[in-house]
Every structure is written in C-alpha cells, then in structure tokens.
Amino acid sequence: MGKVFATIDDRWQNWIALQKMFFVSTAPQSTEGLINCSPKGLDSFRVIDELTVAYIDLAGSGIETVAHLKENGRITIMFCAFDGPPKILRLYGKGEVLEVGTEAFEALAHHFPQYQGARSIIKVNVSRIQDACGFSVPTYSYEGERDTLLKWAEKKGGAMGVKEYINDRNKESIDGLPGIKLD
Hints:
single chain, 183 residues, alpha+beta, Pnp Oxidase, Chain A
C-alpha cells in the first residue's frame, strides 16, 4: 500500500524534476463518456508550490483533458520511475484551464519555455499525494526528446497557424464537450 503525503516537499520536487515523462488522466461526468489518459513530455511540468502544480498544454489532435477539466475539474497526474529505484507518484486534484491570451495564462507562463504550440496551461490544486511501489514498471533508457511537435508548430506558421489549427480541431472533445476557441 502506498503512502499519502501532506505536501509536495523538496524530496518529491527533486524526484519529479528527474522524470522525463508523466501521464494525465481525466474523465467526463457522464458514465457514457470516455476516460482519457495522455502521456506528456518535453520541458512542460512545474511544481508551483507544495500543493500546486502546472504544465504547459501543447496543441494536439485531441482536447479531452481541457474539455473534462472545464466540465468537472477532476484530474490525476502520474509519474513513473523508468530508471533508478522503482517508484510511482500520483497527484490527485482539481485542475483549471488557463487559455493562451488570458491574464491567468500570462501569470504562470514565465515558468515554462515559450512553445509556439501552446494552447493553455493546466494548473492543478493538489488534494492528495500518494506514492506506490512501481515494482512492475519496466526500466527504459532515455534517449532524448522528440522534436516532432515543435517542428509541426513551425510548419503551421508559428503561433497564428497553430491558433487556426486549435480553432478548427480543438473546439470540442470526442464526447462533444466544449474545448478551446482562441480569439
């Protein structure tokens, strides 16, 4: 059984900073809706304080996380150690979507690299911090970041092209929930 922690202390902050990947899970209110789990990488995750985390959300083919958070705010973020001692850490909480161009986005944007494909920052108020053994998680060797998404944003013509893509493809989730419409 994993342990529950009161805060994301220095030990956890340092461990999180070493992880190259994390997973984000959300679900709509409807039991008919689809549960979503998305892998995330690049230099995109930050611990803001002992009970607040955030990640830069980059444009992609889906908008499930954003749509689910706008509907109900429920989110779980999971980190797995793929090298070193086995460990899993889950951060449970309520998330909010801070869309590009808003004051809320600008207030946190300085924590992240400037990605042309950014569409929002997902900010999470963490209510439960729990670890697990991770004994069955395989080990992998990190070779580097993929630059495919960054090159895609450049090919789209930068921020304006990405904005058009978001407005065209990220208006709603696969369950029909509202996504993002950038002005």
